[in-house]
Specification:
19 helices, about 550 residues, 5-stranded antiparallel sheet, mainly alpha, flat
């Protein structure tokens, strides 16, 4: 019988190991499956699009295998990886490194959703979240496990991936997108961002990028608004230029292909390149412009004729060669408008969003505006670097805006305009507050404090990282916290006992402490026979003691 109990209780070694692994790493398996599914869905979306175009094409150059190779190559191009075209007329391989920014949304969004869903796990059923590092590593590893065979398969087609760019860009996109998904699943905590900002930014500029509640700070919101205005304004300039050259835009469709299937393919390619063209137009309005080849710059001051350019519809929006005119100079209204928007955000935050600094001084406001302009320059430099790249060798080795020139021009344009606008908005808002009868910032008195509430009733702030932890004060002792369910102490000496006693208050707290009854309501004691009866009090005129009754 004992042997039967022993064999039923104990488990074999492989079964116990499998059970232990299953209980210890549930998030890793889910992350691997989620990352692989995200990569598979992205590849499937690109494959369906390419296969539809291949089926509808009247003159397909290759079979379905060639279309599948092109789909895998385009999926890698959406991650920022550079491709190499081997079937050129000269026989030399030609690079193609202009990634369509609209196609990049597909893998980034799929990675973000996969990481977020993996980290949440069964949180909808009030279950704890998966460990962040486990979910993040699982999604990235699962995604790369599918990306590696896809890159090897694409290497056998006409568009082959550049291995240096593929090894760099695909893991980087996977790491960043999956990290944002896990960060979103955990409620976007400010701790990781504070640690990164603490290592990069000085102490006086951290609050401008990230607020105490985890939201973007004043400078971050202003920089994002400025970049949005520049890109949206670039899209407007592109639309106006295409409408101005409408006839040439129509003719380019007929030169490239014939039939509705070819026109549809060209139209889809133009749509995917629209964000790139908007960034190019914004770079043109900022001053540096963009390159249509090595040494062929297009700026508001003038444009040179670009040789060997294909008849592409979006290229019809390029200004005509020659010196710039007054009409071309009107594009400077775009960076001025972006600078005003950045300055308005900073000026409003200088009065209403000052935080522990109160109303900002003029120097702090101007510095915050310059810092926001610098952040906007960094964003525009990043977009310019992603929107351009090589389209061939020799003359077409450089195509698109130069990232460092765009970033520097953005910082200069927006820095001057935003500082002046921020100071103006600050003065205007302060003047409005003075007219309403409010006190000036430098003459403000300390507000009257409300009665202290229990500490649990206040909104507690999340603990910050170790780099932002303040040291405890040395002069004043820290008061002991009050429990939430502790009643108010009604027997404390409030200093009003003398007044109550002087006015004859019937209910005095001091009497309760002394044991006396202010209302003269006392229980009558039981008579005792063995004690003598007390004598009555003597009259005022009596001098002799009376005998006991």
């Amino acid at each position: 019988m004992a042997g039967v109990i022993q064999t039923t209780v104990r488990r074999s070694m492989p079964a116990s190991l499998l059970l232990r692994v299953r209980h210890r790493s549930p998030g890793l398996a889910n992350g691997l499956a989620g990352g692989a599914l995200a990569a598979g869905l992205g590849l499937a979306a690109f494959t369906v699009l390419v296969m539809l175009l291949w089926v509808s094409s009247p003159y397909p150059d290759s079979g379905p295998g060639g279309a599948l190779h092109v789909a895998a190559a385009l999926w890698l191009l959406a991650h920022g990886a550079e491709l190499v075209r081997v079937d050129t007329l000269s026989g030399a391989p030609a690079p193609m490194g202009v990634p369509p920014l609209l196609l990049a949304v597909v893998p980034v969004w799929l990675l973000h959703r996969a990481a977020r869903d993996t980290a949440e796990g069964g949180a909808r059923d009030n279950a704890p979240l998966m460990p962040g590092r486990t979910a993040w590593a699982g999604v990235v590893l699962g995604y790369l496990a599918v990306a590696a065979p896809a890159a090897l398969y694409a290497a056998g087609g006409a568009l082959r991936p550049s291995w240096a760019w593929t090894v760099l860009c695909v893991p980087l996109v996977a790491l960043v997108a999956a990290g944002t998904g896990v960060w979103t699943a955990y409620g976007r905590p400010s701790g990781p961002l504070e640690q990164v900002l603490g290592a990069v930014l000085p102490r006086g500029a951290r609050h401008l990028v990230l607020g105490p509640d985890g939201r973007p700070g004043v400078a971050a919101r202003a920089a994002a608004a400025g970049a949005t205005v520049l890109v949206a304004g670039g899209a407007v300039l592109l639309t106006v230029s295409l409408g101005w050259h409408l006839g040439e835009t129509r003719r380019t469709f007929g030169r490239l292909t014939e039939g509705w299937s070819g026109w549809l393919a060209v139209l889809l390619l133009c749509v995917t390149l629209l964000p790139n063209a908007a960034v190019w137009a914004a770079a043109y309005a900022l001053g540096p412009g963009f390159l249509l080849g090595t040494g062929v710059a297009v700026t508001p001051l003038g444009a040179r004729a670009a040789p060997l350019l294909p008849p592409f519809p979006l290229l019809a929006a390029v200004p005509d060669p020659g010196a710039g005119t007054g009409l071309h100079g009107t594009v400077v209204a775009l960076p001025l408008t972006a600078g005003v928007v950045v300055g308005w955000f900073v000026g409003r935050g200088a009065v209403t969003g000052g935080g522990r600094f109160g109303v900002w001084t003029t120097g702090r406001t101007a510095g915050a505006a310059a810092f926001a302009a610098g952040l906007c320059g960094v964003l525009m430099a990043l977009l310019a670097g992603l929107a351009g790249g090589p389209l061939g060798t020799a003359v077409l080795a450089r195509f698109g805006p130069v990232w460092w020139q765009v970033g520097l021009a953005t910082a200069v344009w927006l820095g001057l305009t935003a500082a002046a606008t921020a100071l103006t908005v600050r003065a205007w808002r302060l003047r409005r507050s003075y007219r309403r009868g409010e006190r000036r910032a430098d003459r403000a008195v300390a507000p009257r404090r409300r009665p202290a509430l229990p500490r649990a009733a206040r909104k507690e702030r999340l603990p910050r990282g170790t780099w932002f932890k303040r040291k405890p004060g040395r002069s004043a002792p820290v008061p002991a916290p009050v429990a939430a369910d502790e009643p108010y102490l009604l027997l404390d000496d409030d200093g009003d006992d003398g007044d109550d006693r002087a006015h004859g208050a019937p209910g005095d707290l001091r009497d309760l402490r002394d044991g006396t009854d202010p209302f003269d309501v006392r229980p009558r004691p039981e008579p005792l026979d063995d004690l003598p009866t007390p004598s009555p009090p003597a009259a005022p005129g009596d001098t002799e003691p009376r005998p006991p009754a």
